[in-house]
Design goal:
The protein has about 100 residues and is of the alpha+beta class. The chain contains two helices and five strands, in the order αβββαββ. A hairpin with a 6-residue loop joins β2 and β3. The longest helix is centred in the N-terminal third of the chain and has 24 residues.
């Protein structure tokens, strides 16, 4: 019994830790979401190796919380939409939410 104990312990940990995470990921990953924000500011990221990077700052109109993230697409069009309402469209992932599109 002793030589099989490590394998048995590993199997128990695998079943009780790994499988619930896999099930949770299977049922939550890929859920699309969208939310309306106010685009308050658009700035360059400021690094030499990220020329196409733009840092976007948003304000939630309901809670007045500010959020920011990096965006690597469509910089010239975004600059024109400063202080406008923008819908952020994304997808739920294992590590949070991934922004897929900005709709103006």
């Amino acid at each position: 019994m002793y030589p099989l104990s490590p394998l048995l312990i590993y199997g128990i940990f695998y079943i009780f830790i790994s499988d619930p995470i896999k099930l949770w990921a299977y049922y939550t990953q890929g859920d699309y979401w969208y939310k309306e924000y106010i685009l308050t500011d658009v700035q360059e990221c400021g690094t030499e190796y990220e020329d196409s990077c733009t840092r976007l700052y948003f304000k939630d109109p309901k809670t007045n919380e500010t959020h920011d993230f990096r965006w690597y697409d469509d910089k010239s069009t975004i600059m024109n939409n400063k202080n406008d309402y923008v819908y952020i469209v994304g997808e739920a992932s294992l590590f949070g939410y991934i922004v897929r599109n900005l709709e103006r």
